[in-house]
Input
Amino acid sequence: MFINCHSFHSLRYGTLSIEGLVKQAHESGARELVLTDINTVTGIYDFKKACENVGIQPIPGVEVRKEGKLLYVGIARRFSGIGEINKVITDHNCNDIELCETAPEFNEVFVVYPMSNIPPALKDHEFIGVRIDELNFLIRPEYEKYIPKMVVLHPVTFSTEEEYKLHKILRAIDNNTLLSKLTKKEVCRKSEYFISEQQIVKAFQRYPEIVKNTRNILKACNFEFDFEKVKNKPCYTRSKESDVKLLKRLAYLGLKKRYGKDHEIAKERVDKELKVIDDLNFCSYFLITWDIVRYSNRMGFMHVGRGSGANSIVSYCIGITDICPLELDLYFERFLNLNRKSPPDFDIDWSWQNRDTILEYIFTRYGKNHVAFCGTNVEFKYKSIFREVGKAFGLPKEELDDLTSRSMETHDPNSVVQLVQKYGKLLEKFPNQRSMHACGILISEEPITHYTALEMPPKGFPIVQFDMNVAEDIKLEKLDILSQRGLGTINDTVNLIKKTRGIDVDIRDTGISKDEEKANEYLAIGRTIGCFYIESPAMRGLLRRLKCDNYRILVAASSIIRPGVAQSGMMREYIFRHNHPDQFQYFHSVFEEHLKETYGIMVYQEDVIKIAQYFGGLTLADGDILRRAMSGKGRSIKKLQEVKANFFKSCRDKGHSLELTAEAYRQIESFAGYSFCKAHSASYAVESYQSLYLKVYYPLEFMVSVINNQGGFYRTEVYIHEAKMSGGKIQTPCVNASEYQTTLKGTDIYLGLMLLEGLETRIAHGIVEERERNGSYQSLENFIKRIPIGIETIQILIFIGAFRFTGKPKNELLVEARLLLVNFKPEQRGLMLIEEPVQEFKLPPLKREHFEDAFDEIELIGFPVSCSPFDLLQTKYRGSVFVKDLLQYHKRQVKMLAYLIARKHVPTKKGTMYFGTWIDVNGDYFDTAHFPDSLKEYDFQGGGCYLLLGTVEVDFHFPTITIHKMAKMPMIPDPRYAYDKERQYDIHRQIKEDVSMTFRKPYPQAHEIGLPRHHFQ
Output
């Protein structure tokens, strides 16, 4: 009897989860249930499974609304009916086709109109829904004729009085209004909860025909759907047979190119993989990915194929990845095996500048009706919950700001705040809005509206209404098309080298992208600022602790830096064993045989699968469940518990002691959710090495490209410092020499106009375009005639030194600009037929202090360029010890003067601590540790230079200073405000620092790890 049920996927309306809705329907005795969320089919697949688990017949539908008004309810007679409704919703969402008051011509959809929207005529499949509280209307003559076409309409939206209030809060949030101002039309009726079928039949006892019509509709519906059938394109070519032939031909061509003619081991591996790919029907998946990569290569784009797909030698041979699985002993079964039920995953990165071109190709090549982005449900988050619910209750902005900035325990206990907390907690895990998955692309054989309606987010690519988990459940496999700035940096550097030096760098040449002597030297000392994935303070510290001087160690480092590995203590233990390989025994012979490369420590996901298989005797299918749990993709705790039980039973059968088994499983478990697969680490390591090679041999081109790709871990100032340390002469923006982006001319690096925070993008581009069209600017007056600009923007350019080519001081240019703009008429702008001579202004000499330029630079781009931050200190003291000597000071106290680059918040059992990154006066980097006790008295005071007192701790070749005391050093007053004492220290507050927050559990100490260094019996 329930043909109009809402879940919380009716965003900001329904209050019931799919599980909650089905559970209550089951308890009320319902035998059939229709899910009709508002303008969406997000929940229908989870709904089908949940219903069938409790013996209810599921029926999918949609409640079609327009601007809050209920038009009709569409109920799918067959699954194809959902496709018909999806097209209507998609046309509205993506093509701006207005939703009609009446339903279109449906073939497999029952339509139920509310009594508030009865159409002039009803078709055979169309009905009118009557609520219990509307039955008294049926005595009216105008409704009597409709009784044979009426059905029971008892909507379900909530379950309790509390949930009804929650529904009203959701409606207030959706309408951006106060609870007290909600109208009846904006909320559901108070009767929209489950009652028993007997109560419904009793209410309609005078109209048995209406009950019969309702039952007939329910009986006529059938939600037939095959979850096991793959919904993607089954063939790239015209048939599966020709797909197999094409993939084999491409793999053999690549085999010859990658390995030469007679490499039997590689050929055996290719043949083995091709058979598995064929048996699992994944030929088209490989070929579609190959086709996209082929287009990318044709366009001259650089890509990185990573993730578990890089375990495949076939993907290496056909050019999807650049990682040789034989070289690194990569485990194909981690990617594909005959026991694996879930689809494989190719993750492919492009530069952030090229990704949209790749997406356009995919949508065009495979048809806009067959391609869409995966959706994702954005849930109400802690801060947004309190802000949104608080607004609905009418709390002022100041109180909302306070609520969201403090933890719940510290909130005032007044009645309104308690209500906000109460209903806020109920909203946790509720979907708030649908958004676009960052990278998942779906390509279907049938039009994609066969399975879902589409939505069009602001980014301009359509999205499906369900997330990646549902896509996987219904066997609609995704391609991950990602973008990143690291590739943009590499690509731009290679292009810039060609432009500045005329050298073609083949960055994919493994001789330079995996093993190069000088690059290895940089790697071992952590000289990697600007390099993809290996520039953070933690990573540079790890590289130094490992003395990482080759690609293989870099691959391991890329994985052990991950939170889960570090959290379990494996990172600390790996560092110890790497530096002391003679001071431990292997835990068990299986660990020695299969994990020798990583000193018996599980570093990669493959390691866990190998231990589960060879030590624990688990099947590959059980190993795959473990893998999914480790990837954060396992959604069944019950299955994981079964695998654990199998592991212990199998180990007992193999003769392992309980103590030995428990320790092995503890190590496996510690990896859950965080470790990389080895191929993923290897792909990252190649890209890291490529960027490192460019930094080593072409440092200026590299740092300019890093700046233009908006950096990585650090702010622009740090990369400019790196460029300066590499011999670059940094020039502030100039209207005659600068482009929108930063440029390199010889050793001169001209900062781009884009770095000027107050300069509009449109004007910055206009300055460059006008100069390219009509030549350099001759004077300030000539510039004003050619560029539509006001005095505020002129001042920004003058203060940054953009008119220094005139040879005039800034004060004089400022006066000149004001005089020129007083009588200037915009219609005079543009080049004259006969250029009038430049008007010369006779001004008295205007004195400028030495450091005024530096303070102009801090104000306009955030940091000084014409001098060092140390030059602006009141003290001439520069420290007693410098970075170059720190290794000699182990366990000794040092006093240093340093400029703060970044600090990282880290929780500990005793409270918050920070790790700081600094440079000394020589420009060298070092790291500090600030424990909670010292921070109580000597906390950070924002960006700038500090005097530091601490003890040096050298941990495996890497010095860190544990800080006991520190004080921020005063800078000279701003000379530009020599006559305004109140403003002399305003700009000092703009000195920046990078602060990164982490909320993980504290890393364990050495004594807490407990990883055995001896052989277990």
About this structure: Residues 778 and 949 are 53 Å apart (CA to CA). The mean pLDDT is 90. The chain has 38 helices and 23 strands. The longest strand covers residues 893-908.
